[in-house]
Amino acid sequence: MRQSKNFLDKTFKYSERGSSLKTEIIGGVTTFLTMAYIVLVNPSILADAGMDKTALITVTIIASAIGTLIFAFMANAPFALAPGMGLNAFFTYSLVIGEGISWQQALGVVFISGCVFLILALAGLREAIANAIPKSLGLAAASGIGLFLSFVGLQGMGVVVADPATLVGLGEFTPTVVIALLTLALMAILEYKKVKGGILISIVITTVISILFGLVQLPSSIISAPPSIAPVAFKLDIIGALKFSLIGPIFSFMFVDLFDSLAVLIGCCKSIGMEDKNGKIKGMGKMLYADVASTMIGAVLGTSTVTTYAESASGIAAGARTGLSSIVTAGLFILTLIFTPLLSIVPSYAASAALVMVGVFMFTNIKNIDFHDIKIAVPAFITILFMPLTYSISTGLCFGFISYIMMHIVAKETKKISPALWVIGLLCVMNLFIG
């Protein structure tokens, strides 16, 4: 036992980072509990794109486990990966439903965005692109995606419905709507009480209540072999995604993945002292390579962009400091494969409530935007507003970038517009008015 501990310590260096085997295990379990809801929510969202929901459960688990393991061994850092919230909604509601393309082409878009991300990294342009993105627009994008997710979630709950006079209106208080609202309330209470895995616990309780009221039927067996991934795996259409009209979505996937990953990695790594004397994060390159590799593998398997999860911060708060905790998280994901019959009965309105709660977390980014500066306020507001109202994350981003450049031209502050940002602005104009 001691030899195995020494081997693990030599491999992951947890003692050197002030951790222990027990702490790494606890950290890995904590991270899993806070993000396990994705196994239930991601299939519900992507199923609306016409994909096989049961196959998606297996794919979500496998993609999350693979991405997390890649990160563990490549970067030796305490982070977990899974299909990103917001990006999966973008995949389904903006691309497949909004643009009218097939889900196979949408997977191709995800794969290409990963390739572009990789090329930029290899060419040394990744940092230039990241630095070219104004912080205010990055924060606005996160807030806008949160609002968009909440809007989609409220629709799935049945709380918001179509209205011919006002476009949207309040739905009827049917049993499922009432249960969905109670689920959202429970999630909020558990989050306030800082209960680990509050979203997952709420979904489980809702599923049990739905079973008791006959709204959901129990499966014939609790444990079984996982559903085949054949209906969605290796179905991506890369050639079909190589369209000029899809440049905007490809860029949007890459931008959101890059900015989200950087925000999570920088924030968490600084909190555990993983930075050098110059303030740069140690191993950041390896971390981003692990992230983009996971995205490309995820697209091949049949899911939207796999990215680094902010919920990893919960494991870090519990003491995780190395990739060993990520291995624990990945192992727990793999363990859930045999319980897929139970996962498949989760009602969609429960998963939709989770979307609203995740939207709350993302929308809190708005507090860091300087709305006193009109040059910042207008582009940020437009970005946030346009995402849910146009039902398109990429459209919101495009109008946000264009308005940011316009406001700084008017203010005669063009020096603040980098060459990379000018290129981004041009691509946005082409996407909106030509694509």
From TrEMBL:
Key words of the record: Cell membrane, Membrane, Transmembrane, Transmembrane helix, Transport
Keyword Transmembrane helix: yes
GO molecular function: purine nucleobase transmembrane transporter activity
Membrane topology reported for the UniProt record: Multi-pass membrane protein
Keyword Zinc attributed: no
Transmembrane segments: 21-42, 54-72, 103-125, 137-161, 173-192, 199-218, 238-267, 288-310, 316-339, 346-364, 376-405, 417-434
Lineage top rank: taxon: Bacteria
Cellular localization per UniProt: Cell membrane
One Gene Ontology cellular component annotation held by this UniProt entry: plasma membrane
Family affiliation: Belongs to the nucleobase:cation symporter-2 (NCS2) (TC 2.A.40) family. Azg-like subfamily.
Protein name: NCS2 family permease
Annotated organism of origin: Clostridium tarantellae
Source taxonomy: Bacteria, Bacillati, Bacillota, Clostridia, Eubacteriales
